[in-house]
Amino acid sequence: MPNNSRRFSSMILLMVACLFEPSTKVAAQSSTAAEPQSAKPGTFRVAGTVVNSVDGHPLARAEVFLIDTKNPKIRQWMITSDDGHFEFNQVAKGKYSLEGGKRGFIRQAYNQHEEYSTAIVTGADVPTEDLILRLTPTAIISVKILDESGEPVRKASVMLYREDRSSGVRRIQGVGSSSTDDLGSCEFTRLIAGTYFLGVTATPWYAMHPASTPANGLDKSASNEIHSFDVVYPPTYFGDTSEPDSAAPIVIKGGDQAQAEIRLSPVQSLHLVFSAAEDKQHGVSMPLLQRLGFDGTELPQMAETQNVSPGLYEITGIAPGRYKVTLPGSTPAEIDLATNGQDLSQLGGEALSTVKATVRIFGETKLPQPFYVQLRPVDGSRGVGQTVDERGEVTFANVNPGQYNIFGGTNNKGYAVVKVSSQGSETPGHSLNVPPGSSLTASISLVEGLVNVEGFAKRTGKSAPGAMVVLVPEHPESNRELFRRDESDLDGSFNLQGIAPGSYSVVAIEDGWNLDWALPAVIGPYLKGAKTVTITAQHGQSMKLTEPVEVQAHH
Q1: Alpha carbons 235 and 203: distance in angstroms, whole number
Q2: Per-residue pLDDT at 268
Q3: What is the pLDDT, as a whole number, of residue 226?
Q4: Could you say which DSSP state residue 490 is in?
Q5: In this structure, is residue 184 part of a structural domain?
Q6: What is the count of structural domains for the chain?
Q7: CA 289 vs CA 297, 413, 533: distances in Å
Q8: Are 200 and 145 in contact (CB under 8 A)?
Q9: What is the DSSP letter of 217?
Q10: Is residue 414, in this structure, part of any structural domain at all?
Q11: 391 is in which domain, residue-wise?
């Protein structure tokens, strides 16, 4: 759970690299160039140079902010001199986020990794006067989409994906989309460095999808001619492949201007059928088809549905491939769609379930309002949340069967689930098993407040700033949501927040940001050098580790 008060967020990948106006609530020191001054007694000096992270050149007229992590309204601001120098004098003792920005560069915090950064610590006997704040120039990917004849494809939908490990496992997630112009071109700008992928969906301008049953008195030759136009473009990825696993990566460094061309090739459209009785009040509930893509599903190109006979519908405009098919009242079923006439009515998965729960907090007679409960699948996929009513009751309808972790809280306070009772069986912890087609009742018991763990990361006895600190739960394979991370500050300090009761290990890793740290096989070798900690509800809001955590080298 990130400490938003002291970490600069970089989760939004397509950032606007613009100059920021100084806040009206900045502290007294605010200047347009670095002018050496003497710090008053009891205050400290924070100084250094802003440089281009690619070539190391100093950046003149870059904006630099020094922001108090406990009270972000307290901040100082200045513009660097011609040699990229900045300095803040008369800085009070404390922790500060050092951030910089310049047109054409990503706004970044000191030693930033993902949404984490190293806070500057004054009054802790660590150097703060020769800092290097690195800013990365923005990058561009220019895209060209061509059809089978080499002609530009207009109004193609182009999706941009980026490799991401912020959840502890490698995922490829969508970060932007665009549409091609009359020249078949589009651009993705202001990109941060990383590994990207491109995907495109489009419809041939000449395509038509007649029903399989001859109609309108067309003769055989006319039907054959129309059939030749019954084509679609399958979703296509850079590398000219329709399979996401075969997509070619685009590795972008700061300042890069990459170009990518994707050529689309038509394939014959599938004709699928679906049987359904019409409900005069609600109409017909049609199946949902989702093309399997990166880290989940993607909606395919627009399909066409025609009523070919009473109770029988034909779906066209679908490219062959692997899909998730969801029928009303059942879980999605993964299947290869490759043959005309496949009946989607027979492809339903397991029956959905309902979970009704009562929620209580130990020591409280009423729940604070609004209070939320969330069911999160243990496999890390997206959870479902609901608001608990004033009676302490909550209902989850249409729940996929499986194993869930339960979490609860208000908008500004966290609570730990310590006990779950269901169908006469009581289990400690925060997990719940939902069988297929069940109507489950449960009781959820929570305690107020989640614990913070504070400590220091050290390397051979010295402060180790910039290390990735990971809190690993006792059973990491089934408790991915209990992991916590932080980045050690200039004095090596860290603060792991929002920890539920349980047994954990604390690991510090040098340059571990590209690790799949939530996978037991990856994090396991580091646990030998970890510090163990047991969290109970009686610890209160914060506990301090009595011994430092030794930083381990990246294996």
Answers
A1: 10
A2: 94
A3: 65
A4: T
A5: no
A6: 3
A7: 10, 39, 46
A8: yes
A9: T
A10: yes
A11: 353-448
